[in-house]
Design goal:
Structural class of chain A: alpha+beta
Number of strands of chain B: 23
Strand content of chain B: 35-45%
Strand content of chain A: 35-45%
Number of domains of chain A: 2
Largest interface: A-B, 51 and 47 residues
Shape of chain B: globular
Helix content of chain B: 10-25%
Number of domains of chain B: 2
Number of helices of chain B: 9
Number of strands of chain A: 24
Oligomer: heterodimer
Largest sheet of chain B: 9 strands, mixed
Radius of gyration of chain B: 24 Å
Distance between the termini of chain B: 61 Å
Radius of gyration of chain A: 23 Å
Chain lengths: ~425, ~425
């Protein structure tokens, strides 16, 4: 199939499993989704052909090969012998089933109670990529997602485990959201803002990771022109490192089978290595592949972040608050959006707190943070010292729903535009 | 073994395990996808095959879905949670499958030619405009639903969708995107789509907003659709009683006499046209609002049995992976076949012709208010007087519903959660503002 010198061809096999326990008043009960399939891809110059099937079988594989090679049905593409292991057995789900009860109890311990529908899911994914040049080890991921439907909106988290700390963390977030409903709204203002590790990680995902994906950069022209650009201050050291993600989602290769490595997106605020896949790296020698992700077998890969890291600096939380008197503190983000062309972004914040005399004051209701990528990044004037695993969530750029992970300390922004 | 006989065997097998209510849903199809964008030109073809089983007893239930075909021996997890009752079979009125089901899916050359024609059409009027992303999807499928309560239905479908994103040639231009759906890719008309882009891009570049203004508003189909989408909490599901009561006037109306909103799962030529819904119940037209009076929201079989509402045959599945859920199929504001858009346009002495939205806006049904970013033209004596952009159409949702003074015949559907459609409407009682 790959009969031109620069052809790229690969076969991508995947298995997905999702086990869900719905809210107590929803039917049916346990929900299990298990799927498998493959995709064959041929990239030639600026063109890609992809054929996908919803089962892993030799006949379908041969058909897909013929389709991608655009050969006549009579062309001799022998069916391969596929050594297909059985789908792994459904693991014990008792911890998953108990989780909503544990969260409800933890909320009660925080002296709160409110109507809530909590759904919890375990996601498992197994993939294998076989290319023309190398065949890396199979990869697997396992993590959990929780969604809470509340009278005032929806709140969701991703987590690598269902530990006691996860239970407490989710209960605290939900309880604070509940209490924030009665809290006063923020008057539109421009002020100093401290973002907790979770909020900082989501913000950096929107304004650094998305902005430095090669498919985003290509919209603005040549990708290489971004290299060496001073995007933020010297405190900003941002990396994408799938090999350092939480253990159950750690990756040694990406969804194109390329080695996943520690990638400096920003070194002291300067763009060093954008997130690239094989397609973009073939068009520019300055780019390194290894950051490709696939939403599923039916879609071609695209460059995305997997595990974003902001390296810590020296400031304690007290230091960050001390120089933000009259400012605002936001620990969580509910959603974010970046316009790739204008560089303008919007981040929705479910609640916040006022900073008074170096400590946290009254609780505030939902608001939004707006600005431009360059304005925001150049405005970061302090980075905390305490690194936390934070900011995990679903990323849905271009309709590809992917789990993303991060670790980050808190950050302080000198002047941020906040609106209610 | 055929799909139907396999499904029957799965039902029998699970009933034998003590699960009284069992339903097997099978879907298979082919789709093609063409994309022009930063990743070059991508042509994909997929053959998809999936299934889902809902089963339950008086004590617990389960849902299992997977690719390929279901196996008689599962593996099935132990049922859990609530009991499950599935709908009984109902007589399905005759349905004539659309003729285009047999038409082949479009090829790569045809699809790329369409995207290029849109780009060329825009560039010829607005040099320097860039196509950022063009995406075409087309597919056909067959669905079978079989249950232990006597449902046994099979039908075929086809759909095509288009999404194009472009940017104007001036610095700081924001992206403009258009999403459409039709039954066939061949139904997309490149010059019409290019014209819509040119209008949107030109307005973005040249339009201005008044600080604050009122008048008559001619709302193009895109605005009507967006407002109908905001009304979904009122039109879908049985929990809209309080909202309806708050909107009713002394005569018991929630809108103008010209306002009729209906949903029709058999809408002829519609993208989601089908004889039965996602649970195998017959589809048909359901009037939600008739001549300004609220009739009833769209409800499924289960909700209807618990109330005095009528089941609407409006339970949909986003895919074989998803559970059936009440939702619109073709929800639309009924057009008036006698009225041309030009007739409404020339009737506007002073006002605005709002042709499109420029963002999502904010809608608050409880507080009865909305703000929607819009673009269009200022109108004087039925003629365009100045381009308008960066403006916010604001007001109360009840004012919009009651303020409909005219309805044209140009019904257009857009893909949202189901297909939502509206013709051009003439509305009073709203306001334009420079900021929300």
């Amino acid at each position: 199939m790959a009969d031109h010198e620069d052809d790229l061809a690969d076969a991508y096999f995947e298995r997905l499993e999702e086990v869900e326990y719905p809210a107590a008043d929803e039917e049916p009960g346990i929900r299990v989704r298990r799927e498998e399939g493959f995709a064959i891809r041929l990239v030639r110059g600026g063109r890609t052909w992809l054929a996908a099937r919803d089962q892993i079988a030799a006949t379908e594989f041969g058909e897909a090969l013929r389709q991608v090679a655009r050969a006549q049905p009579s062309a001799p593409y022998p069916e391969p012998t596929l050594d297909r292991a059985p789908f792994p057995l459904l693991e014990d789900t008792s911890r998953l089933a108990r989780f909503p009860t544990l969260v409800t109890r933890a909320i009660r311990r925080q002296l709160a109670a409110f109507p809530m529908r909590l759904r919890v899911r375990r996601h498992r994914r197994w993939i294998r990529v076989i290319g023309t040049q190398l065949a890396p080890e199979p990869q697997s991921e396992s993590f959990y997602s929780c969604d809470a439907d509340l009278p005032w909106g929806r709140f969701g988290v991703l987590t690598p485990d269902l530990s006691a700390a996860t239970v407490e963390g989710l209960a605290t977030s939900l309880t604070t959201l509940f209490r924030a409903q009665e809290a006063p709204r923020v008057e539109p203002t421009t002020c100093r803002v401290v973002l907790g590790p979770h909020a900082a990680a989501v913000l950096l995902h929107e304004v650094v990771a998305h902005a430095l994906e090669t498919d985003t950069l290509m919209l603005g022209g040549r990708v290489e022109s971004a290299l060496g650009l001073q995007l933020g201050g010297p405190l900003l050291n941002v990396l994408d490192d799938p090999t350092n993600a939480p253990e159950s989602v750690r990756r040694s290769s990406d969804d194109e089978g390329m080695i996943a490595a520690r990638r400096w997106l920003l070194r002291e605020g300067v763009v060093e290595q954008p997130l690239a896949d094989l397609f973009s790296a073939r068009h520019s020698k300055a780019l390194t592949p290894g950051a490709a992700r696939r939403g599923n077998r039916h879609r071609s890969p695209a460059p995305r972040s997997t595990h974003l890291e902001l390296l810590p600096d020296e400031s304690s939380m007290d230091d960050l608050f001390a120089e933000a008197d009259g400012g605002l503190y936001f620990p969580e983000v509910s959603s974010g959006r970046l316009d790739p062309l204008s560089g303008r972004f919007t981040i929705s914040l479910p609640y916040g707190k006022r900073i008074k005399a170096g400590s946290l004051g009254e609780l505030l209701g939902p608001c939004r943070l707006r600005g431009t990528v360059s304005g925001l990044l150049s405005g970061i004037d302090a980075v905390g010292r305490d690194l936390e695993s934070a900011g995990a969530g679903w990323c849905a750029k271009n309709g590809l729903k992917l789990p993303v992970w991060a670790s980050s300390p808190a950050i302080r922004i000198g002047a941020a535009e906040v609106e209610s | 073994m055929t799909s139907e006989s396999l499904a029957r065997s799965v039902v029998d097998s699970l009933v034998g395990r003590g699960l009284n209510d069992v339903e097997v849903f099978l879907k298979s199809g082919r789709s093609r996808r063409f994309e022009i964008g930063p990743q070059g030109r991508v042509a994909s073809s997929s053959q998809e095959e999936g299934w889902a089983v809902r089963a339950g007893s008086d004590r617990a239930s389960l849902f299992v879905a997977g690719t390929g075909r279901p196996a008689l021996d599962g593996p099935w997890p132990d049922p859990d949670g609530l009991p499950l009752r599935l709908p009984p079979a109902a007589r399905v009125p005759p349905w004539r499958p659309p003729a285009d089901l047999e038409a082949p899916l479009s090829g790569e050359t045809e699809a790329i030619r369409l995207l290029e024609a849109i780009e060329k059409g825009v560039s010829s009027e607005l040099a320097g405009t860039r196509l950022l992303r063009g995406l075409l999807d087309e597919g056909s499928s067959q669905t079978s639903i079989l249950s232990s309560r006597g449902i046994e239905e099979t039908y075929r479908s086809r759909a095509a969708s288009l999404f194009v994103e472009m940017a104007g040639p001036w610095p700081g231009a924001q992206t403009v995107g258009i999403a459409m759906a039709r039954r066939e890719l061949r139904s997309f008309h490149a010059p019409t789509i290019a014209r819509r882009f040119v209008d949107r891009l030109l307005l973005q570049g040249e339009g201005e907003s008044p600080e604050r203004d009122r008048g008559e508003f001619l709302l193009g189909p895109a605005l009507g659709v967006r407002l109908l989408v905001a009304l979904l909490p009122l039109t879908v599901g049985g929990g809209s009683g309080a909202m309806v009561r708050a909107l009713r006037d002394r005569q018991g109306r929630i809108g103008s006499e010209l306002l009729t909103v209906a949903d029709d799962g058999r809408y002829r030529g519609g993208v989601l046209e089908a004889p039965v819904d996602g649970e195998g119940r017959p589809t048909g037209e359901s009037v939600v609002i008739g001549s300004g009076r609220f009739h009833q929201s769209l409800v499924g079989w289960k909700e209807a049995t618990r109330s005095d509402l009528v089941a609407s045959g409006c339970v949909r599945r986003a895919s074989w992976r998803d559970l059936p859920k009440v939702g619109p199929s073709h929800l639309f504001l009924a057009p008036n076949p006698e009225v041309k858009v030009a007739t409404l346009l020339t009737a506007v002495a002073r006002g605005y012709y709002l042709i499109d939205t420029q963002g999502n806006g904010h809608f608050d049904l409880e507080q009865d208010r909305f703000q929607l970013p819009v673009c269009g033209f200022a109108l004087r004596q039925g003629r365009a007087a100045a381009p308008l952009a960066g403006a916010w159409l604001t007001g109360s949702i009840s004012s919009w519903l009651r303020g409909i003074q005219g309805v044209a015949r140009d019904l257009e559907f857009e893909p949202w959660s189901g297909m939502i459609g509206s013709p051009t409407t003439l509305v009073t009682g709203l306001e334009l503002r420079r900021s929300p």
